[in-house]
Amino acid sequence: MALSTATPNELRFDTGRICLDLLTTTHPEERLDSVDVLRAWITGSGLVPADTALAHADTGWLLAFRELRAQVDRLVRCRPRPGVATYDLALARVNDLARTAPPALRAVRGEDGRLLRRLDGPPCCAALLAAVARDAVDLLTDPVARAALRQCEGDNCPIVYLDTSRGRRRRWCSSEVCGNRERVARHRRRAALARA
Description:
Helices cover about 45% and strands about 10% of the residues. With about 200 residues, it is mainly alpha-helical.
């Protein structure tokens, strides 16, 4: 699959937070490699309703989302310690981005009478960045959520997720991806031992 043709279903949305879902776009390689993929990520992550037109998104958006991703990654993976310049700069940047109002939502009646979520107008990049940055601020300032952050135990998997499982025993970012790889590897090791 060419990354530039990725659809929302081919991108990862199983970390438990939008800001962490953004971090997954670097694994197994750079996923945000085009504006089309960014549009798919924005829609798939739920930042905007599925039928929102994002034709006005451009390479400036792509660079801005990658920059926010790098700042959130620093904040999530490092322990907050006063005086650490890279952490403080990342925190200042995320706080700055979070100041902008996120996209304005409204409820409208659909053809069948059900209420549907719609945006008040085309979303601007700053508003979408603000929604992700606010999610990061919420995550980083919530001690319970922060304590539930885990890094996947899969081989070479850097994905960080929020463990909301019963008993807090979740080991992998995805049972279907990394969990399945681990189960297959374990089966192969047992089979090799049985043959030996």
